[in-house]
Amino acid sequence: MSTTRTTARRATTAGRALAGRAMTGDRTYTVVDSPVGPLTLVANDGVLAGLYMQDQRHRPPQETFGQPDTEPFGEVAAQLEAYFADGLEAFDVPLAPVGTPFQQRVWSELRNIPYGETRSYGQLADRLGAPGASRAVGLANGRNPIGIIIPCHRVVGAGGGLTGYGGGLPRKRFLLDLEQGVRRLA
After folding, report:
1. 10 pLDDT higher than 80
2. Are 40 and 55 contacting, i.e. CB atoms less than 8 angstroms apart?
3. What is the DSSP letter of 114?
4. Which of 13-17, 19-23, 38-42 is least confident?
5. Residues 160 and 118: beta-carbon distance below 8 Å
């Protein structure tokens, strides 16, 4: 088995194990409207731990989100509104995504992709010092629990084409167009 497959398999297995542990602490959630549909915001001890789209792949079960509470999400909601309406280019809210060490490295690198730009899975793997691990990077990218704010939509295929996105390719296209100044309805 190749190193890339082994890394991807370990990341997926570890990610499943961590999902159970992510339910600890005081978890709360709220739902906000957006041009890409309702967004469920989840906080763990008051810090954003999840942002999920409706029908998103790898979305945790609703019962893991905790109790409804809008209080911890005021600044997140305001920044999301500014992102969609005014082109806010960088989010400045505390984040607490739960994942494996490799996933955390990938998600950290995603935050380094500038607004309005894209990178390929291979380019991300290279930046992580793991050339040839683009498949593992793709799997970690797909498990990103805080979409939009951790901009996994900015990752494209090697030739620049749109590839998988947990929220669906139409949403990915919308977010990329939004960042390029192209306004379309979701």
Report:
1. no
2. no
3. P
4. 13-17
5. yes
Predicted TM-score (pTM) of this structure: 0.82
- Catalytic residue numbers read 152
Strand order, beta sheet including 67-68: 47-53, 39-44, 27-32, 67-68
SS3 28: strand
Measured distance CA(58)–CA(7) in Å, rounded: 19
Structure tokens at 132: 């040839």
- For helices 134-142 and 101-110, what crossing angle results, to 10°? 80
Q: Residue 142: is it exposed, middle or buried by C-beta count within 10 angstroms (0-12/13-18/19+)?
A: middle
Q: Which two tokens stand for residue 4?
A: 């890339």
Q: How many CA within 13 A on the CB side of residue 126?
A: 6
pLDDT tens, 77-110? 999 999 999 889 999 999 999 999 999 999 999 9
What is the rounded CA–CA span in Å between residue 49 and residue 179?
24
Residue 128 burial by Cβ neighbours in a 10 Å radius (0-12, 13-18, 19+): middle
